[in-house]
Amino acid sequence: MNDAPTRSDSMAPPLRSAALDFSAARVMAMIQRHLYLLGSSPVRLIDLAYWPTVQLLTWSFLQLYVGRTSQLPVLAAGTLIGGILLWDVLFRGQLGFSMSFLEEVWSRNLGHLLMSPLRPSEFVASLMIMSILRLMIGLVPAVLIATTFFGFDIKTLSFAIPFLFVNLMLTAWSVGLVTSGLILRNGLAAETIAWSAMFAMMPFACISYPVSTLPAWLQPIAWTLPPTYVFEAMRAMLIAKTFRLDLLIESLALNLVWIALGAFAFRALLASARRAGSLLSMGE
Fold first, then answer.
1. Is residue 8 part of a domain?
2. Residues 282, 182: contact at Cβ < 8 Å?
3. DSSP string for residues in 106-151
4. Tens digit of each residue's pLDDT (9 = 90 or more) over 64-94
5. Distance between CA 190 and CA 187 in Å, rounded?
6. How far apart are CA 226 and CA 273, in angstroms?
7. What share of the chain is helix, strand, coil (3-state, %, to 5)?
8. 194 with 95: CB under 8 angstroms?
9. E strand residue ranges, the chain
10. Which domain, by its residues, includes 58?
11. Is 28 part of any domain?
12. What is the number of domains present in the chain?
């Protein structure tokens, strides 16, 4: 019996895993496209910085007023400003992800991208990186204003900033994946979800007040949201000068579940959109 490989066997291409097919070059090409888009439109850059700055000024002046009239130590600790800054990370992170995705929908480019060698995982990776870049454009001016003009002591949070940032971005990406998937499947009729999804979470994430403020029957709902742990940890650091690593670990554990569910939902909705043939029909 001849065990020598046949010509077809010897010339068969080696098996490659999906991980090996991931191309950083394609991801960078997508990022470069969006950077060109931002660089060619000063209006977009101004818009990224405008709303975080206006929101920060509004709430900072409110904190100054209430703090002077009530002398509450909680307000004096800067928890309201800290909550607004972290909320901006969460909201702008998700919006940066969704806006980069919507740019492709509005330009009717999404179908072409998904028929190109660009893999969905590479597309998502580029959206994640662009969400960070968009966030930084708006967040840096707001942080400078908070520390320079309103005396916010960011040094108190300095050690925990990476933990806070990672947890909030994971939540933002999880929501961004789901909202982008819904737009893929339902078209621009679902566009409003990208703008409003985070606001549904806002009352229960306890941005400017502790979880104990909520009615007892709502508190379990609040503790299912990863950002709740982040804001509780922020208040512990600003008020009690205590680093609550336990809260941040719990937030990370929940975020890993959220990001896995978000990725699953995105892939399922993308597959459904391909079957329905809706990718090429989306646009302005």
1. no
2. no
3. HTT-HHHHHHSS--HHHHHHHHHHHHHHHHHHHHHHHHHHHHHHS-
4. 666 666 555 555 557 788 888 999 999 999 9
5. 6
6. 29
7. 80, 0, 20
8. yes
9. none
10. 41-276
11. no
12. 1
